[in-house]
Amino acid sequence: MTNSNYKNQEGISLFHKYLTFWVVICMVVGVLIGYFIPSIPKFLSKFEYAQVSIPIAILIWIMIYPMMMKVDFKSVKDVTKNPKGLFITWIINWLIKPFTMFAISWFFFFVVFKVFITPELATKYLAGAILLGAAPCTAMVFVWSHLTKGNPSYTVVQVATNNLIILVLFIPIVKLLLGVSNIQVPWNTLILSVLLFVLIPLAFGIVTRLFITRKKGKEFFEQIFVKKFDRITIFGLLAMLVLLFMFQGEVIINNPLHIILIAVPLSIQTLLIFAISFFVSKKAKLSYDIAAPAALIGASNFFELSVAMAIAIFGLNSPVVLATIVGVLTEVPLMLFLVKIANKNKNKFIGGNLNE
């Protein structure tokens, strides 16, 4: 969703607008299949390699690969132009967000909700929250930026640089915070997961973009080629959710309240990071079309990567995966709410009155 096709978007699609509804439907379908037809998840669980579910891995690649194609990494050369907004984005995403997610989630899971959640479950839910907090949004942020009339070129640079930073900082931050949580994960497992679900689709996305652009031109790539993947991506997300809930059925049936308990700290984290980013952007005197996307990038998560990492590290049946899925459940309604908050306060920023 880079420059030209991004500008032509009328707004958020019905699918994305009601993503929470679709997630709930997938949850119901998946849980029912897992509960009444357990032979299906049992059969699918046979297709694993190095503890990674091959069907889930394929569906995740179907989702992540088109996202990587949409980002024009040539835009990285423009990082020296108005770098203030980029510095704020990087600092919020990598020096603040992962650690506030850890602190807030630890407080709720181990203190506030300790009568509802066993220490073992609390530790696993915390691990899922850590994976969410260490992965800033890379795809849906284009939608949030569009809804706030953000600067499309600048948003591309913000997302492109974040994708590159993920390659460097995601593993050490996750390793550090999991270690603090007494969850030991081998370095090779983390490296393999990032290789499978970030580096490989990123490389394929870059190669595909360069090849098609040279053959057919940038306009064809952005207006026609990439859009062909939209329905496939949606199918991949819905099918993956059904499969995940299929394997999580027992956990959900035995602990239905836990979905709400997980959603509370994740939601508070989203609101807090948005508030910090929005406030800092205002104090830094960023124009509204840069400040709004900067705040929304930090507030939202790259949940596809978080889910993929949870599965690869902890396995399909782990409550860690459930925690990352709840991130999908809560994100869209919260982000639409924050888009409204941003737009209502745009006149407080430089250029805010010009974005009518």
Summarize this, please?
With about 350 residues, the chain is mainly alpha-helical. It is built from 16 helices and two strands.
At the first level of CATH, what is the class? Mainly Alpha
Which structural class do you get from the secondary structure elements?
mainly alpha
What Rg is obtained from the alpha carbons, in whole angstroms? 20 Å
The rough form would be described as globular
Number of helices: 16
The average pLDDT score comes to 84
What is the topology?
Elements: H1 3-7, H2 14-17, H3 19-36, H4 39-44, E1 48-49, E2 52-53, H5 54-70, H6 84-112, H7 119-133, H8 141-147, H9 152-180, H10 187-216, H11 218-225, H12 230-254, H13 257-283, H14 288-299, H15 303-314, H16 319-344
Helix pairs in contact: 3-12, 3-16, 5-10, 5-12, 6-7, 6-9, 6-13, 6-14, 7-15, 7-16, 8-9, 8-14, 9-10, 9-14, 10-11, 10-15, 12-16, 13-14, 13-16, 15-16
Protein described:
The chain is mainly α and 356 residues long. The radius of gyration is 20 Å and the shape is globular. The longest helix has 30 residues, at 187-216. It has one domain (3-354): Na+/H+ antiporter like fold, CATH 1.20.1530.20. The chain has a two-stranded antiparallel ribbon. 76% of the residues lie in helices and 1% in strands. Mean pLDDT is 84; it is low at 1-10. Helix 12 packs across helix 16 (319-344).
